[in-house]
Specification:
8-stranded mixed beta sheet, 5-stranded antiparallel beta sheet, mainly beta, 8% helix, Metal Binding Protein, Guanine Nucleotide Exchange Factor, Chain A, 197 residues, single chain
């Protein structure tokens, strides 16, 4: 009996808020790697390392906002914020910000339709990259010094429900049925990831 190794494919997926003010591209490797979730530190609730994963968190902020976290393998190369604005984070750029946890985590949302597309901690830069055969200006996380994980200064989480449905491999029902959605318990004294809530 021969077994066929799983073919992992990295490809771009588009996402947006409901009205289209916020648009982004993220690069995902599907199917999701079947690797164990890192165990968070009991004191901080943060894992030693990051990596591509999909999970629901039951902390009060994520619960109230309805976030389905999609963490990326390498945010500086895997996330592009498309914007015609010189600074999408300015009031004129259409993106508003809600901070909590002593202001360290920025939960960005559309100032027009209110949809929350991503949360971030760390610097961003303006860059020119090729998208669909054209050079466009984008905002992306700064690669130099980008570190995620326990005690690290950087963090990026996309709200997976803002991904555009349709491209091959992008069906949130399938992601659920395949067991790719994990759960993190942030309310008790021993936070950790599990298969079920």
């Amino acid at each position: 009996m021969s077994s066929h190794p799983t073919q992992f494919t990295r490809r771009p997926y588009k996402g947006s808020c409901h009205c289209g003010t916020i648009k982004y591209i993220t690069y995902l490797t599907l199917p999701f790697p079947d690797s164990p979730f890192p165990s968070p530190d009991p004191k901080t609730g943060m894992a030693e390392r990051s990596g591509q994963r999909l999970y629901k968190c039951n902390c009060t902020v994520c619960h109230k906002m309805g976030i389905l976290h999609l963490r990326l393998q390498n945010p500086p190369t895997d996330f592009l914020l498309l914007s015609s604005s010189l600074d999408p984070m300015s009031p004129e750029g259409g993106i508003s910000d809600y901070t909590c946890n002593k202001g360290s985590n920025h939960r960005y949302f559309c100032a027009n339709c209110g949809v929350r597309c991503f949360s971030m901690r760390g610097p961003m830069e303006n860059a020119e990259v090729e998208v669909d055969g054209k050079v466009v200006k984008v905002w992306r996380p700064v690669a130099e010094g980008w570190r995620e994980g326990k005690g690290a200064p950087c963090y990026l989480s996309i709200n997976a429900v803002t991904l555009e449905e349709g491209p091959e491999g992008l069906d949130l029902r399938e992601w659920h049925d395949n067991g790719w959605v994990k759960y993190v318990d942030s309310l008790d004294d021993s936070p950790g990831f599990s298969e079920k809530p």
